[in-house]
Structure prediction request, 228 residues.
Amino acid sequence: MRINQLGPHTINRIAAGERPANVVKEIMENSLDADSNHIHITIVAGGLELIKIKDNGHGIHFRAFTFRSIYKDGKLTCKPTPCASNDGTTVIVQNLFPNTVQRRKSFTFPLEEYKRIQECVENYAMHHYQHGFTLKQVKILEHTKEDFSLKLLYSTIATNSSIEKAKSPIFITVVNNRLIGNAQIKKSLKKVYKDIDENYSPSFLYVSLHVRPDKLDANIHPTKIEVK
Prediction:
């Protein structure tokens, strides 16, 4: 059987909607570009059922490619409506990947997706330390016995992942106020520490770089997670 290569449109659509965390990242970046200093994120089922992001920015035109991809991969709500609320923008994305059943099935652990979102928000909060970020995960409990529901609720509240020891070094790399994941930069930084002390390995490292826009290509990947 002949194997046909996917077209650019399909490839870009798959890449841009890799995970719920990518959607959160793109919308947060738009909020920051709109001079927001308070961003509230609400997540249901690891972002697969609901992603709601509310900011207090002045509002800007969203990047067409990003939102076209989100629209095709889920139900997107983003329109101006008069209401009793503070200034800002609220974006709601529901039911990600409804038309790609296999893609939807690949996300078997919503908690894992939430942790990816949490990591993304924490990294941006570290870089934009003067801003306020709120991340809330809404858990829908099925109808069950009252005592079991209370135990489940309080055990969830008592859990604090922030005090757990990191299993691997944490590297936060920001280029021109955009969170990126560049393996070459991480490799270079590790080498610097190894040259200083061969036995020392940093558990946390944060680097913020400012590069002339004309010397930077941020369009090598649809999620903007890589730059060149």
